[in-house]
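Allow me, if you will, to draw on your knowledge of protein folds for a short while. I am sending you one protein, given as its amino acid sequence and as whole-number tokens for its backbone shapes. Kindly check, if you would, that the fold set down in the tokens agrees with what the sequence suggests. The record follows directly beneath this note:
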Amino acid sequence: MLRAKMPFLALILLLGGPFRLAAQAPRATPGRPVPNKPIPTKLIPAPWVLGAETVDHWKGLLPTVNAPKQRTRAYPGQRLTLAIAAQGADRDLLLKGGTYAFTVTFGGSATTFSDLHPSQIRGIKAEGADFATYVMEQANVEAKGLEDALSMVSLALFDLDWQVPADAKDGTAAIQGAMTTPGGKVTQLKTAHLEIWSSDRAVKEGAFQNQEEVGAWTMTYYQAPEPFRLLHALRLSKDDKSGPRPNVITFYVQVLKAAPPAAQDLMRRLAREDRVTRIYALLLLSEAGYDLSSCLTTLPVEDHQAFQQVRTQAVALPDPYDFSVNLDDPYQITTRMDMLWSIFLATGDQKPVRAIADTLAWREDGKAVLDLRRSGKKIESITPGLLHGLAYGAGGWSLGSFVRNHGLVADFVEAWKRDPKTPAVIKEELGTLITNEAFKVK
């Protein structure tokens, strides 16, 4: 039963208007409504190739999520997750009831995985579904079956015990598969192809033109990790006149921690790099916890001394999860927020984003800062309440920005809003990320 009249825009979105599905959906013809016909249940035979990290990203989320980015390239040491899509009212039953087999062929060898069943099945949101949900929540609308209406495709995930060989040469992996129904019907899937880049090719062809390209790479890194391109980013870092910032260092350290093969490869190549790049890389590797003894033997003695001197003088990275107030450093909390976003961008991990969401509990301080901003008065003194209020605004603004541009963060937020363990104040503030005046940049 509707508690409020459904806004016209939300009604259009709900009934099949201007949003696209992650997979095939009826297209609207200008001037004609989309017919509300049931979509036949059927398998979509083109496999999705995903990174194994997708499974970790989705832990603890709601059954319906935003579509993950399909992988077109992989590097030594990386593992894969395959996904098969289906559409129609009984799509989950179709996917769950099947038995699957896949063969991965690469470098002249083939590995077959048979008698497989999905490790999990997820509904995939239509493009624009998060906004449609937000509109109806703001209008205090209850719409039965809303999630079903905004998702007409499901993915079945398969965690294959296959990884790109550490000594992989350049080439293409072919992935073939079949699905067998309980009645014995066999559907051959389309062959998926995945480009494999060796570490040498990544170093030869994976360069960035400028810092802007590096920035764009970092913003979507968790969707398709490319750790062997890190050396190119470090080469450009010496041209950054602002110097290494905590959030940048945090991002690179997280990349290295998650990719030991890339870290080992970086150490093998440092002797051929310029001195600034070598020292910077050594500091990052050390911060990531790697043993540098073998690497240092390949470098000039002067580098050993310079590295030890810089490491001694360098300021230790702060704990990004420590949001304690420092009246002598008004930017301390926001600096640590930037570090937390760097952890998310490198890993797709939910924990740092939740830590930022927890600052929304400082709502009363945030309201006081908003009132101060509206009044046009100058800040007379730095107080803990003021810093909490500023952090509240910065946290809400950054969360809203990421929700609009990163489907995974939108999925995090939706899960927290429905989690009984989430404090009520945070749930309420998460529901205002797009419209809250305190979360808008002035």
